[in-house]
Amino acid sequence: MISLVLQAERIAARWVASLASAALGFPSMASYSGFRILTEGLTGNSGWRPAWRKPEPKPAYDAIVIGGGGHGLATAFYLASIHGITNVAVLERGPIGMGNTGRNTTIVRSNYLLPENHHFYEHSLKLWEGLEQSLGYNVMMSQRGVLNLFHSDAQRNAFTRRGNAMRLAGIDAELIGPAEVKAMCPLIDLDNARYPVMGGLLQRRGGTARHDAVAWGFAHAADARGVDIIEHCEVTSMIIEGGAIMGVRTTRGDIMAPKVGLAVAGNTSVLCAMAGLTVPVESHLMQAFVSEGLKPLIDHVITFGAQHFYISQSDKGGLVFGGGLDGYSSYGQRGTLPEAEHIFAAGASLMPGLKRVRALRSWAGVMDMTPDASPYICLTPIKGLTLTGGWNYGGFKATPGSGWCHAWTMAKQEPHRLNAAYTLTRFKEGRMLDEKGAGPFFWMQ
Fold it and tell me: pTM above the 0.70 mark?
């Protein structure tokens, strides 16, 4: 009886705190609690409110973020929550989260080789680990582990080098053998005739998160802090005077701001062209697929080291998998059958048991590829105009880190040390971050 009374008192206290927070304009931490879901289920779900407002654009803001995907919403959230800049507009030409945020394979990791990259991605992973508490929203973060397989002596040596670099930086990494690989994922064909599995590099803190929930969570938390999220508002041109950004022209009128940040993924070159900038980036398609729902088969994220293939299993049972680029520039958000065939063949080669599994749907993200496979988070030659882009294959996992660093760069008009190397000028200055060791050409990435 005493414990029931204590529980009732705690529930009441949470409700009082929730009401007080709402009155003060702060996000309600109880909005999506188990108790709230039970209550709404018993009352016809009549008490839910929209997760974010649908405001009309104001004539002017302190800052504008163009792009309503994960990176743009994260930028706005950190501008408000860390830097106290709440008079912010996020402009999205359609509904939020309908670009790459909703078109990826949801992988989260920080297993990079170069210091500039593994420090940034490790910072991002640490933000992921506390993101649900920061947002007050369940993004379904699952640290199930990411296993990169290797298939030759040379590949083992390269993975050993990467793992050692990670460990020297304080990042978790383990090199495991075939027996441990088989124990983790019995479906894998260790004795593959072409690509025998010799082991793998494992990062146990890596995993997955629910991509659309990430967009919704950042939108919910940013809106609660006063950010205006303006959907169906396409930017058509930039207003620049005296080499400085003054605002943007949109399909819903001119909106002025002394600081504008671009977070538009595959449309980076299009928006930069509006400001008269030519950036080293190309837009390519990368497909992803989901299978029919199955019983638990794959407990981790597995990547095939011999061919570009990666796979995990969602909470609903679907296998989520993808491969490399389609090989041509496009904004189509749909892939090609030859690349789909290549991805299916790679999956069946790695895990023969997948041959009878049916794929239900596919999509394609528009990847903004840079010559050295590393991103941009930087100032531009236009005063007040900043950029986060060029995310190649790493956009989703970088979401909180990109937003955090971009918000810092926008607020202070200078880079943080974590993104100081991610400049547009690094190619001219000979400071490339060639993470893949593939060379300074788009087609090599």
Answer: yes
